[in-house]
Backbone:
């Protein structure tokens, strides 16, 4: 009797103890599941940053689309629709082998059978029209204009501003090239695969007044762990006369930071992320670190003695651009010890707005947390302590001055990219910016660093604010900036299988 | 239940061995890639490295799930110390994952991850072996007899 009693007590205890282990785990697991189709409007929780709310954005996590009839749809926020374009380009996207300029073949993606895709150049003020045609990309495709602060409907994010373009279909992007500078375009549908595989190109907006500098593009991309500049794995040559002024537009299309240095002559950092720096002083023996997705324009004069200049792109490997007279000797690679600190580079200048007259303050604190993401156990990225999809939706109203504190304690560097806006860096780890206004659309935040940035909410829409180490975005390092009174009819997943990351 | 307990414990031990094998495979894959002139950076595609994929599946899937299962099974095994040893295995698995987390912050912690793996291996083998070899200490009188037998040999 006593034994039987003991046995049944023991069984009950065992069941209770098992439930104590399994129920919380099951709860966490189920809670982490992401539906196949959802609207980014309903993802996570709204963060008003101390400003006024918007009843449309108070939905519970993934509770179903909250789109009010009074809302402006992102599709209404389009570029000029009727006028004749000044620059018209058709880009045909294909999934096929890419033959690099130096002959290597990799499996990937092309635009007009090229990777990088065609270089698009426009003059400031011109209307650009790009027709994207999907010839053979099964997953679909969308083109994002990285760094261009264009109308929301032209932003090219599948599931947020449009549906992915399926094979046989096309999508037209129209926008005015407003701010001169270096930009790039890339797929924002299954972007972690498509961009890596070569579905990108460079966009340069030239200033309205003619420039005398020799204008050179250096798009750095790593295909299958082979680093290239303009599609070539080896050193490339660019002919320039002795003493000629040169502007190199270095574009980092990779997922990792890129160190760029000019060897042979002093150089200036003329612009970052398509915004000119004020009073750039000459730099010798230091490199510029360009975040993933970022751009830097470097200016120098070729030596008058007829030798060439080496623009070293990346510390390892021999990807470099040699600029000088044909056949001229170039200095050998000389890895720079220091990086130019853009926090104190150049001369201060008015920002054009008062960052202390703040309407909204947001925290974007990046960490790492053990748990489940869509049912998969792991150490997942967290934003303000929450794991995707329970991430903040930063809510702003047009005209707000917004301050954001980006803090990283995740152990890895994160290149944070805000769509549709440029933000100015105010401070790093409490040290105020003391150089030229440093405007960014892509900002590297190293582990242990805290940046304070500010911007004016002057471009209504629903904008991604994510890590541009694209696999990190697929791992949940994605949030959005949403303007009050605006909603998107597009869905992640859905019939178009939208998958922006 | 005992045989399930034993199977799970030995599965965890075998899993630790495979973890050692897969991390070495992953590391040597990276060495070969570096020597072939490939660019290894924050953009590295970990999913292209079989060793790392296997290590992730083992370390965040098979081993933790087996450790949870072992803990649950232990509640139904009427063997003294079975729960304690399963809990120790479970705790070492949690510690092992916490050390990964810490190693992302500071690489030197990664060494402790390697050492803790050995502790987990021993704990799992111990748990598996002891389930069918209960300690004589549990039955005081028998101990004395067995001890005498032992000394007389």
Residues:
């Amino acid at each position: 009797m006593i034994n039987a009693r003991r046995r049944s007590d023991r069984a009950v205890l065992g069941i209770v103890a098992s439930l104590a282990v399994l129920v919380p785990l099951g709860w966490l697991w189920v809670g982490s599941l992401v539906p196949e189709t959802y609207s980014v409007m309903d993802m996570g929780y709204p963060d008003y940053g101390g400003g006024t709310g918007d009843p449309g954005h108070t939905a519970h996590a993934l509770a179903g689309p909250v789109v009010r009839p009074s809302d402006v749809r992102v599709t209404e926020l389009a570029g000029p629709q009727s006028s004749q374009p000044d620059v018209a380009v058709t880009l045909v996207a294909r999934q096929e082998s890419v033959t690099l300029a130096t002959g290597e073949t990799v499996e990937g993606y092309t635009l007009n059978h090229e990777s990088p895709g065609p270089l698009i150049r426009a003059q400031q003020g011109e209307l650009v029209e790009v027709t994207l045609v999907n010839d053979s990309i099964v997953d679909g495709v969308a083109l994002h204009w990285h760094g261009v602060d264009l109308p929301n409907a032209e932003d090219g994010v599948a599931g947020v501003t449009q549906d992915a373009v399926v094979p046989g279909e096309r999508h037209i992007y129209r926008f005015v090239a407003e701010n001169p500078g270096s930009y790039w375009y890339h797929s924002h549908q299954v972007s972690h695969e498509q961009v890596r595989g070569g579905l990108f190109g460079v966009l340069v907006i030239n200033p309205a007044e003619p420039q005398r500098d020799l204008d050179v593009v250096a798009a750095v991309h790593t295909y299958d762990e082979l680093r290239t500049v303009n599609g070539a794995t080896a050193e490339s040559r660019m002919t320039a006369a002795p003493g000629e002024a040169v502007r190199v537009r270095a574009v980092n299309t990779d997922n990792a930071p890129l160190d760029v240095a000019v060897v042979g002559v002093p150089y200036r950092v003329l612009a970052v992320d398509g915004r000119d720096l004020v009073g750039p002083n000459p730099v010798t023996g230091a490199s510029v670190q360009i975040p993933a997705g970022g751009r830097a324009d470097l200016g120098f004069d070729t030596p008058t003695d007829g030798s060439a200049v080496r623009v070293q792109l990346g510390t390892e490997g021999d990807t470099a651009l040699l600029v000088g007279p044909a056949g001229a000797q170039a200095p050998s690679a000389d890895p720079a010890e220091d990086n130019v600190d853009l926090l104190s580079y150049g001369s201060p200048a008015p920002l054009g707005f008062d960052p202390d007259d703040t309407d909204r303050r947001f925290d974007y604190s990046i960490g790492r947390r053990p748990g489940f993401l869509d049912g998969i156990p792991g150490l997942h990225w967290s934003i303000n302590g929450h794991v995707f999809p329970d991430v903040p939706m930063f809510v702003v109203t047009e005209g707000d001055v917004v301050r954001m504190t980006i803090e990283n304690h995740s152990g890895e560097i994160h290149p944070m990219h805000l769509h549709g806006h440029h933000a100015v860096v105010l401070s790093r780890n409490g040290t105020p910016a003391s150089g030229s206004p440093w405007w960014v659309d892509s900002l590297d935040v190293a582990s242990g660093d805290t940046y304070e940035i500010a911007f004016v909410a002057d471009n209504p829409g629903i904008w991604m604010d994510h890590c541009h180490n694209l696999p990190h975005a697929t791992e949940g390092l994605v949030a959005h900036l949403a303007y009050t009174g605006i909603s998107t009819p597009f869905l992640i997943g859905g019939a178009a299988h939208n998958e922006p990351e | 239940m005992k045989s399930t307990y034993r199977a799970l414990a030995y599965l965890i031990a075998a899993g630790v061995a495979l973890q050692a094998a897969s991390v070495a495979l992953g590391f040597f894959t990276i060495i070969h890639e570096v020597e072939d002139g490939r660019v290894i950076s924050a953009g590295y595609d970990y999913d292209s490295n079989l060793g790392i994929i296997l290590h992730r599946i083992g370390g965040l899937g098979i081993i933790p799930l087996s450790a949870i299962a072992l803990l649950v099974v232990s509640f139904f095994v009427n063997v003294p110390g079975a729960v304690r040893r399963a809990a120790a295995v479970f705790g070492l698995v949690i510690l092992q994952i916490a050390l990964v987390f810490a190693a992302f912050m500071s690489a030197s912690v990664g060494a402790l991850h390697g050492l803790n793996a050995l502790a987990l291996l021993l704990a799992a083998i111990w748990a598996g072996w002891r389930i069918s070899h209960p300690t004589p200490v549990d039955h005081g009188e028998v101990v004395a007899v067995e001890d005498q037998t032992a000394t007389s040999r």
